[in-house]
Amino acid sequence: MIITSRFFNRSELIGFVALALVLVVILPLSLDVFRLNLVAKYLTYAFVAIGLVLCWGYGGILSLGQGVFFGLGGYCMAMFLKLEASSVENTKIQSTPGIPDFMDWNQITALPLFWQPFHSLTFTVLAIILVPGLFALIIGTAMFKRRVGGTYFAIITQAVAAILTILIVGQQGYTGGINGMTDLRTLKGWDIRPDHAKIILYFFEVFLLFGCILIAQFIRLTKLGRILVAMREQEDRVRFSGYSVANFKIFAFCMAAIFAAIGGAMFALNVGFMSPSFVGIVPSIEMVIYTAVGGRMSIFGAVWGALLVNFAKTGLSESFPQLWLFGLGALFIAVVLAFPNGLSGIWADYVQPRIDRLLASRKSKSGSPWAGNSVADGAPAE
Amino acid sequence: MLIGHQPKPFLLAVEALTVSFDGFKAVNNLSFYVEENEIRVIIGPNGAGKTTVLDLICGKTKATSGSIQFRGKELTKLKENQIVQTGVGRKFQTPSVFEDLTVFENLEISYPRGRTVFGSLAFQRDDAVKQRVEEVAEMIFLKDRLDTYADQLSHGQKQWLEIGMLLIQDPELLMLDEPVAGMSVSERAKTAELLNRIIKDRSVLVIEHDMKFVEDIAHKVTVLHQGQIISEGTMEKVKNDPKVIEVYLGH
């Protein structure tokens, strides 16, 4: 892991350190395991949001179907966990022992062929990346090579989200239907349900999240990152500079899909189940809102957006369950109209200049070099 | 190398080119040839199909019929980015630069290396790139604005930047759509100077309305009217052609 001044500029480095402090030190020390597990759940959406920063913020490709990839990743993980939970011993009361319970309820008597490889953890990990990646490749190729973009693309991704939900719900015997895959217990014999396992999974997830942040930051800083920005503004100019615009869009969409899938897989592990309610249109739109609130041009902003909106969601729906959807809608409208760059935009426009001024004045008084501890922790950084 | 007397091959050969939009023939059975190092200006009244001709050559619009051969390669079957890679560069009428990127980054994107997805991931900003970008920036009068975001540039500077982006591609055929339109008098003079410098060692196809400018640079002029060529030749010949005077210059 190389963190040089070149890889992160000063405010990005502050953002990285602030996020690391909050996720690795402050939250684990201040929250009980139940709340920490909730944070783990929120963070699974942060993966999706980081992908959307690349795909939507930088590349200008709005996908309203990221739930599809979140779901594919989540279902791949859940299938592995479900198979392990459905050992012959655990399911001896079923009419066909050794298959997942929902299959037995649906009169299926043998494990379907496409379930077989999910006995292997290696296959599962590969599938979490490759299945959504390939699916995004197919959708992306079909759409972008034909120059379908903008709103049309967004609508098609919505349709895909709806189709996948219907498919999962309809194929109850193979997918667990509307209830999803529940009662996931162990990972290679290691129980994922007790408190200490939740804590370990939380830290593993944070580790993966920072991995994804670094990958996204790397992509952002390469020429590919600049081509994405260029493409968003002047697609034709990029094309007539000798680039195949479709290929770059496909790449951005596939990366966003893979990030979303990693989030989905972590969701299945941390929350202990997976269901079609995280696949469809509404969750897909919510994922876009997290990104918009955090700031679609900021990788760190997207993580904060996912965390804060979900905290608000939990808080509000605990006290006023009916109001949440209205709140979410209002939030989205407010962000789009008033703060198009979200929290990170507010930070960069209003907070950062003040800190800079403060630091500059302190520096000139004492002559001491810039000190990082004056940055409020937990603050979203660009 | 040549055996016997072969005619000099044309750099660009457009033959029987037709494009029809819902039955309207914007370009109708058009044929013309551009030689190596030739500067050809296309003039004509509004709606004559001038921009459409450039669109057809660079692949932005697909031809209904006819052929466009560039160095013996059929361009009508290639995609836009492939046409660029064979050596055809195109400047649009309105300046199209990347406003959220700096002048340096704008030029760097046009640098002909790392044009695939993985090539651009592995692309390194090495000395060759920096040197070439600085060289071109100096040529387009933007040497001390390399770190400026393109949205801070004036209209004329954006035009120059786009010309610079083409220069860095080093195309064998450069197509310019009204390069001096909307420029101030001093910018116009500077642009003429710039164009005169960059058109050396390559063929150029220019659309322009400014007759003074056309006279300055054109080797040969093609006059389009309603999608067809009504006159072609030196500026002197075209200027005195009664048909041209009637439809275009007479106004």
From TrEMBL, chain A:
Main subcellular location of this protein, as a coarse class: membrane
List the Gene Ontology MF annotations in alphabetical order. branched-chain amino acid transmembrane transporter activity
Question: Does Transmembrane helix show up as a keyword for this record?
Answer: yes
Location of the protein in the cell: Cell membrane
**Sorted alphabetically, which keywords does the UniProt record give?**
Cell membrane, Membrane, Transmembrane, Transmembrane helix
Report the InterPro entries cross-referenced here: ABC_transp_permease, ABC_transptr_urea_perm_UrtC, LivM-like
- The reply to whether Transmembrane helix figures as a keyword in the UniProt entry is yes
Stated membrane topology is: Multi-pass membrane protein
Signal peptide extent: none
Residue stretches spanning the membrane:
12-30, 42-61, 121-144, 151-174, 199-219, 240-267, 287-311, 323-348
GO cellular component terms?
Answer: plasma membrane
| NCBIfam families reported in the protein's UniProt record | urea_trans_UrtC
Q: What is this protein called?
A: Urea ABC transporter permease subunit UrtC
- Species per Swiss-Prot/TrEMBL record: Bradyrhizobium valentinum
Automatic annotation (TrEMBL), chain B:
* Membrane spanning residue stretches: none
Superkingdom of origin organism:
Bacteria
Does this entry carry the keyword Transit peptide? no
Under Pfam families, the record lists: ABC_tran, BCA_ABC_TP_C
Q: Is the Membrane keyword given for this protein?
A: no
Q: Which residues belong to any copy of the ABC transporter domain?
A: 12-251
GO molecular function of the protein, one example? ATP binding
Alphabetized InterPro entries for the sequence: ABC_AA/LPS_Transport, ABC_transporter-like_ATP-bd, ABC_transptr_urea_ATP-bd_UrtD, BCA_ABC_TP_C, P-loop_NTPase
Record's PROSITE patterns? ABC_TRANSPORTER_2 (PS50893)
Keyword list (alphabetical) reads: ATP-binding, Nucleotide-binding, Transport
What Gene Ontology terms describe where this protein resides (cellular component)? plasma membrane
Question: What NCBIfam families would the database entry show?
Answer: urea_trans_UrtD (TIGR03411)
Its name, as the record gives it, is: ABC transporter ATP-binding protein
Q: Which organism is it from?
A: Bradyrhizobium valentinum
